[in-house]
Amino acid sequence: MWSAVPDAAGTAAALLLEAAVGYPDALHRRIPHPVVAIGRAIDALARRWNHGSDADRQQRGVATVALIAGGAATVGVVATRILPRPMVPVVATLGLAQRSLFLHVHDVQRALARDDLAAARIAVARIVGRDTSNLDESGVAAAALESLAESFCDGIVAPAFWFWLGGLAGLFAYKVVNTADSMIGHREEPWRKFGWAAARSDDAMNWIPARIAGALLAIAGRGGFGTMLRDARKHASPNAGWPEAAMAGALQVQLGGPATYDGVTVERPSFGNGRKPDAADLARGLRVTAGACVLLCVGVGLLALAGARKCRR
């Protein structure tokens, strides 16, 4: 594993490279993103093991996360040992999602800006799990902003944190846990027991990054700390409320509230005391998130400089 200096420098390099290039379409057409392979492995084990008693399901769910995350971490260790050092941040870009996140949310914002609500609903459906067919402009904008805030944590801050802390092994293990949580970490049957380990592991691995993400959004938005500290714990998730409440406070809008999933309306807490968001607020949210990404990169870069100075002494 690298020393502290290249960990921080490598993380900053990975963030910059992924923001500039992302996962190129030409490459994607030839080689599916590694998360696709992770998803297929999780799906295969879920089909095979998610049956029997509650105890059996829970134990097999633990085994699923342990096997795939352990395998991914092993791949990360081997890759770090055999790759030239400059290639490690390049590989790490596979675990980051700055560029794709901004492109997807920007698609929603552009559709709203030209008053094409139908296109905006289609675009936002690509990044949220709720029903979007009946959303009005503020509903689409709110859904996109909530996804933007939460994805800033689990698609950018958390992967960067685990790469900085644990190299490729930490990054790959995190991506497995986060993907497993999105696929099987549900409270509804038949996932309640089988997905328990995925959900709890994701909660643990996102605990620190979620609070960092919320702070960065609040700083970049020049506000939002009060709303974040007041409202973050309202969320059913121990982590998602931090960046979402920070975004609501930074933009002075209201996020959260009731949402419909598979035809069933779910009552959710609201974040912030402001008005309902619109297309202009979504554009502002993109700028706030871009600023938070810059702050993240600068912060990691300062860690690298501090480590380099310490090594020279």
From TrEMBL:
Gene Ontology biological-process annotations: cobalamin biosynthetic process
Keyword Cell membrane carried by entry: yes
Listed name of the protein: Cobalamin biosynthesis protein CobD
Main subcellular location of this protein, as a coarse class: membrane
UniProt-listed InterPro entries: Cobalamin_biosynth_CobD/CbiB
Gene Ontology terms, MF aspect: ABC-type vitamin B12 transporter activity; threonine-phosphate decarboxylase activity
UniProt keyword list: Cell membrane, Cobalamin biosynthesis, Membrane, Transmembrane, Transmembrane helix
The keyword Ribosomal protein is assigned to this record: no
Coiled coil feature spans: none
Subcellular localization(s) per the UniProt record: Cell membrane
Family recorded in the similarity comment: Belongs to the CobD/CbiB family.
Originating species: Roseiterribacter gracilis
HAMAP family for this protein: CobD_CbiB
Transmembrane feature ranges: 288-308
Alphabetical list of Pfam families matching this protein: CobD_Cbib
Pathway(s) this gene product operates in, as recorded in its UniProt entry: Cofactor biosynthesis; adenosylcobalamin biosynthesis
Topology within the bilayer: Multi-pass membrane protein
A single GO cellular-component term on record: plasma membrane
Record's function text: Converts cobyric acid to cobinamide by the addition of aminopropanol on the F carboxylic group.
